[in-house]
Queue: 2 jobs
Job 1
Amino acid sequence: MSVLTVASQPYAGQRPGTSGLRKKVTVFQQAHYLENFVQAIFDVVPELNGATLVLGGDGRFYNRVAVQTILKMAAANGVAKVLVGQAGLLSTPAVSCIIRKYAAVGGIVLSASHNPGGPDGDFGIKYNVNNGGPAPEKITEAIYTRTTTINQYKTYTAADLDIDVVGEYTLGNMQVVVLDSVADYAELMADLFDFDAIRAWFAAGHQMRFDAMSAASGPYAKRILEDLLGAPQGTVVNGIPLPDFGGLHPDPNPVYADDLVAHLFGERGSVVSDFGAASDGDADRNMILGRHFIVTPSDSLAVMAANAEKIKGYTRGIAGVARSMPTSCAVDAVAKKRGIACFETPTGWKFFGNLLDAGQVTLCGEESYGTGSDHVREKDGVWAVLFWLNLLAVTGQSVQTIVQQHWQEYGRHFYSRHDYEALDTLAANDLMAHLRRQLPTLAGQTLGEFTVQLADDFAYDDPIDGSRSEQQGIRVVMTDGSRVVFRLSGTGTDGATLRVYLEKFVSDPAGHTVPTQTALAGLIAIAEQLAQIKARTGREAATVVT
Ligand code: VG1
Ligand code: CO
């Protein structure tokens, strides 16, 4: 057994997107493709030499192969110790938790999150830094730059390690600790939430349905909800992670988690659950449902911010909140009333890290079914579900009552996202360029019932490290606060995906019961008028509406 230096050649296109490098599995299966990217990480982060690295993924196809490859490369690159999840499985928030708990220098997350898996699906890899969060752009860009010239990588000639049994192993001079994937994370959740109150809620006969979508959240949800909190066996459905997620799309929204929605809306017989939830491929997203009721992610964040003190881990209050730019302003209304800061960041969790580290914000969220807090540096699906459970348990109210009362107090921000997937990349880029050209003249114009107050290409100056991120989405803000936002996805692997985000504020409770798409009809028409979506993409309708 010895260190081996393997000659390689750069691959084009290894620039990480919104959340790491995501490509088709077949792209990753090319000779040295994964190795090049991993070596670029070791080259850019020399501190890993002699240090501890955390490693795990969402269990999708290629996860096991990649874990073995990375273990051997870590040994060859002088890493002292790797903490790897049993069977190679760690949810994204669990990686973040473990990096922080064991003071690791970094972590490698193997996931393409909500993208489908299997041999024809997607794979992904992401580097997290020592605060437990995704590497900031400075580092992801350096990794990318390194991949453009890389011509060799180091590995270790050794047999594959048995990662299915918890225990301590060695690979050359490197120690490998195979961890129970759930234990550390479950311990953190028990610190943050009132498990006794939630146990009592279940013991009183309340029922929930958690759809793990055959992805990484299954073992976490089963252990915490069923084993620790006394929810009946079977509360967690699709709880075993499968390499292809059972052929389904592990994206917790009403379109892809339609079976869960049907259960909560009585379309599978009578509704037995008071609470429904789902999570995505790597367990960092969450969808929250009540009986006959869907909570939008933006509202979920606002409700959390308004009720934080009722939850065990947040009784001291919250320092501030942050949301990604396309996320609705529902949380802004809460922050304003509470007199706390509210930050608006570009899309992607990496932009919350500095604010969380500096203690400026406690809760943050994105419209894309992501919510989290300063307990880790990733969004956290199971955490969000436990937050809601804790809230239901201590208030004794239903999900619907909590949200409707919230709207009465703060007004309702109607919200929807229209995705146009797998577009021709040139057409999508042209559409964005067409929008950019209109920006200088939009302010002051009347569009339908709205007048444009501000139109720009969102740029973010990080208040902590001063870094600037430009071209983060076109926003058209109306004088009444309504907004239309356009962005191209940074996580897709098939052509381009256009996301159109629509938001309208209605303060009068009499207007709160209108169907969302009806409430947003005027803005949907404006989006089409500004972007010429039909003509430019050839699409009559969005692929996915959430
Ligand atoms: C999407 C979401 C974004 C989220 C990102 C990663 O990015 O819009 O809010 O942070 O996915 O989520 P994009 O660039 O495709 O819009 V996950 O669950 O993939 O880690
Ligand atoms: Co995810």
Job 2
Amino acid sequence: MSIEEKGSISIHTENIFPIIKKFLYSDNEIFLRELVSNAVDAVQKIKRLAALGQYNGELGEPLVEVILDAEKKTISILDNGLGMTAEEIKKYINQVAFSGASEFVEKFKDAKDANEIIGKFGLGFYSAFMVSDLVEIQTLSYQDGAEPAKWVCDGSTSYEISEGNRTTRGTTITLHVNAESEEFLVQSKLEEILDKYGKFLPVPIKFGTKTVQEPDGEDEEGKPKTKSVEVDKIINTTNPIWTKSPADLSDEDYLDFYKQLYPFSEDPLFWIHLNVDYPFNLTGVLYFPKVKNDLDLQRNKIKLYSRQVFITDEVKDIVPEFLMLLHGVIDSPDIPLNVSRSFLQADSNVKKINSYITKKVADKLQELFNKDRKGYEEKWGDIGLFVKYGMVSEEKFYDKAKDFALLTNTKNEQFTLGEYHDKVKDNQTDKNGQVVYIYSNDPSKQDSFIQSANKKDYDVLLMNSPIDNHFINTLEQKLEKTSLKRVDSSVASKLIEKDELLESVLSEDQSKTVKEVFEKAITKPGFNVEIVGLNPEELPVTVTMDEFMRRMKDMAQMGG
Ligand code: ADP
Ligand code: MG
């Protein structure tokens, strides 16, 4: 075989591969993601050319195959995509990566992770050198009269292009895995990486074979027989539900997909199918899970895809903070494959995506509320936390959620904010015209206070979830002429200052003496002793903490 061309790839720098290797090393498993997605792209491109009538040859079954040869220490990625001519190799493989070499060296210092380097410099293909001593391309272009071509590069600055050996259209990339990367020469390791990044790629990815049982006629007694056959092991589902139209999907489809993503989880409460194509492209399905006690464990469950290639489950900047407990998938080609932290924070599409998701979630909740109030109330225990968190943290969400957020009272009745206002405004307006909402954050300990409030026909709200402290503050800021008081924060009779103080059966002197006795016994600051009118239904003496001290104490307990 004659060498047709030898060349040197870089003029400005000695050798950029050590730099690439060094910077990419931390997440070197992405070489497989990059090479497999290039192969998938190549297959998609030939399909498109055929559809446009620009390719009239045999298309064949689209397939990408990954082959591990542990003995030879090679990993190969094969596709029946559009292939490349020798000219195209020079253009796409040599020039693209190396035209920017000097710029690369100039800028690599600022790069924060491998994705950023790949993204900025179009080095997806070159990530192969993170794990290889030598990389070989064998390729045959779809173009009429194209000759097979071969490209070999050992990670130095020189490459060789010569006549290749592929006899069918497409490309084979063979990596000769280096000594430090032998972990990738293990079947199960490759399978794990393929599953992580390629589970939903749009072209079938074959990795080895598997044995299945197939029907094989009947035995002498007429019972069905089976035989073992070897079939291709395809590691992916090519059309996951988020690529389909909601009209074509049943509840079961959504639940099955959820099980596929989170095998050991309980069924979700409901889901939202995302589908936008303007001003950005985004599809996906978000699920509301049943809330578990251990909230932290459930965070970061949303997976981000770009054209069905898994990118990351760090979606912090794309999904609003308060929705980080949701599960599911987001796919956006507008988020580049080689997405990086700093890119996400700066990107304006990402901000739009963020507010789109907020709006969609709000619309869905409003729809559930309108359609089936009872069902919605039943779900409130699980979704209330998200909704309150959203109302506390995002103004825009508050404005929508104020119509479907529910308040629950100690009698387990549920009201919207508007309904609640109407319910209590007559009886619970104080002499300054403020409507006073009374709440309990610990009904078992505050039972006697709740009872005395109820005796006065005051309603007591239940505010005992982890977010309720903040939620109360938000309500106080947002609701006009409304204040919230904790049921035990002052004597029940004074919660709403319109009542006459009950006449005490104790004389003033007697009251004073009793008060002094209690105050001596309680030495901590911030507690108030009050002598209440002694009618048989009242607690004669109450010890309360004033509201300011209580809030200080709560804050100290929350650690900030
Ligand atoms: P990107 O995929 O972002 O363009 P890469 O470095 O991954 O950057 O690939 C560079 C180019 O090499 C691709 O755009 C494509 O033209 C070509 N290429 C890479 N792999 C293949 C392949 N398997 N089949 C055909 N062309 C390929
Ligand atoms: Mg690529």
